[in-house]
Amino acid sequence: MDLNRIIDIRKKKMGNWLLVIGKTRQILICNKLNKIIKLMLVERDNIINYHNPESYIFSKSDNTVITRNSITNKFKYYIQKAGVPEKFHFHCLRHTFITNCIKKGINVNYVQASAGHSELKTTFNYTHIGIEDLKRAILVID
Prior knowledge:
This protein is an alpha+beta fold. It has 6 helices and 4 strands, in the order E-E-H-E-E-H-H-H-H-H. The two termini are about 35 Å apart.
């Protein structure tokens, strides 16, 4: 995996003006995701940039933003189609990523930085450990 793959995450708000709100952060992305996104983007100095910095990666054909409700509805549609319980929502993917990182033994400070959390307790709130995880942990000291 090429660890020089970086993507900028910016929160945007549409109105009369396109405003960048919140902080911009950079995250590393894996090669699989890089290949998918690279089809839509231009790369310079190992940093992935938008063809147009004011464009969205995921947008409608007219380059307008896809609304949160649209994403939620599409996610719910595929959840239902897959037979997954409807209690799951799009944000669960973030919880899953953080939990999987912790289960794989990635240092919690790295997980915190990857998630963009300013407080470690926020990262811990995203971590979900079950009885099977506890059984494996107890085997370490057995």
